[in-house]
Specification:
The protein is an alpha/beta fold. The protein contains nine helices and twelve strands. The protein has two domains: 122 residues, ATPase, nucleotide binding domain (Nucleotidyltransferase, domain 5, 2-Layer Sandwich); 147 residues, Nucleotidyltransferase, domain 5 (2-Layer Sandwich), CATH 3.30.420. A hairpin with a 2-residue loop joins β9 and β10. The longest helix is centred in the last third of the chain and has 20 residues. Bound molecules: adenosine-5'-diphosphate and zinc ion (ZN). Keywords: ATP-binding, Carbohydrate metabolism, Kinase, Magnesium, Metal-binding, Nucleotide-binding, Transferase, Zinc. One of its GO terms (molecular function) is ATP binding.
Length: 289
């Protein structure tokens, strides 16, 4: 059996999966303090201790992913103060001395789509989540694209739409993608949550413009095989077509991408992407241990 931990800012989703990557049990705990939340996580996996061979963790961040770093496996400079400098992998290793895969929450979802979803069989896959925040992960031939740290693609700058006077809600950058297009930025502008807005709300074409700018930047930097947009905001399914149109306008024929309907897509696994990604990463960690 493999364990999966999707560690999010509001909740932790833990699951158990078998060799076929079938989810056997899944539970969710609120993200409070490391002491409280991790006690629940460890209790959950202790039930399976005899069968558990590896664990995959996809965590909110920023996190330290450098194996030779003294703080490998830590959540580092998160604004969630209780979790700053928390030794996540170390805490899990102490309770379960088995192989543990460690990556960002969005990389885990990207991996799920890469192995089982819209990225299956492709060599270069980029996944974004547009939700409470915006995060992005990229895979090349099964490996995460990273250098001194994991990417922070959700904070790329976007050019403000001429009809949008919103200054952006990112405390670091103002008008970055997250500051302009994440769920809370929509709510701040319009006084309503994204899910309360109707399909013909004119703002959606502005939102699509920002997501298209993201797809444009991604295309020029990585030329991936597919770009997947998930997260709560993308549950507005009409958005993807608006993004296609804005994207083609921005690219303006400069690069010949795959057919846009197959190139800019929504996830196949929906809310299972993170769990399945963590399970598959756990399996990889065991294989290479
Ligand atoms: P999280 O990012 O916290 O993991 P989600 O991906 O579900 O969770 O994102 C939550 C955000 O998405 C909230 O800001 C919410 O208002 C927005 N959201 C959720 N559902 C929809 C919807 N159907 N349409 C537009 N926005 C939505
Ligand atoms: Zn930002």
């Amino acid at each position: 059996m493999y364990g999966s931990i999707e560690a999010g800012g509001t909740k932790f989703v833990c699951a158990i999966g078998d060799e076929e990557m079938t989810i056997k049990e899944r539970v969710s705990f609120p993200t409070t303090t490391p002491e409280e939340t991790m006690a629940l996580v460890i209790d959950f996996f202790k039930k399976y201790e005899d069968q558990l061979v590896g664990i995959g963790i996809g965590s909110f961040g920023p996190i330290d992913i450098h194996r030779d770093s003294a703080t490998y496996g830590y959540i580092t400079s998160t604004p969630k103060l209780a979790w700053q400098n928390f030794d996540f992998v170390g805490t899990m290793k102490q309770a379960f001395p088995i192989p543990i895969a460690w990556t960002t929450d969005v990389n885990a979802a990207a991996y799920g789509e890469y192995v089982f979803g819209k990225g299956k069989g492709l060599s270069s896959v980029v996944y974004y989540t547009i939700g409470t925040g915006v995060g992005g992960g990229a895979l090349q031939d099964g490996r995460f694209v990273e250098g001194f740290s994991h990417p922070e693609m959700g904070h790329m700058l976007v050019v403000p739409h001429p009809d949008d006077s919103f200054e952006g809600s990112c405390p670091f950058h103002g008008n970055c993608l997250e500051g302009m297009a994440a769920g809370p930025a929509i709510e701040k502008r319009l006084g309503k949550k994204g899910q309360e807005l109707s399909e013909d709300e004119p703002f959606w074409s502005i939102e699509a413009e920002y997501i298209a700018q993201c797809a444009y930047n991604t295309t020029l930097m990585l030329s991936p095989d597919v770009i997947i947009f998930g997260g709560g905001v993308m549950k507005q399914r009409h958005m993807v077509e608006k993004v296609h149109q804005a994207f083609e306008r921005l690219v303006n024929g400069y690069v010949k991408t795959p057919a846009v309907a197959d190139y800019i897509v929504t996830p196949e696994l929906e809310d299972n992407a993170g769990t399945l990604g963590c399970l598959a990463l756990a399996r990889e960690a065991v294989l290479h241990s």
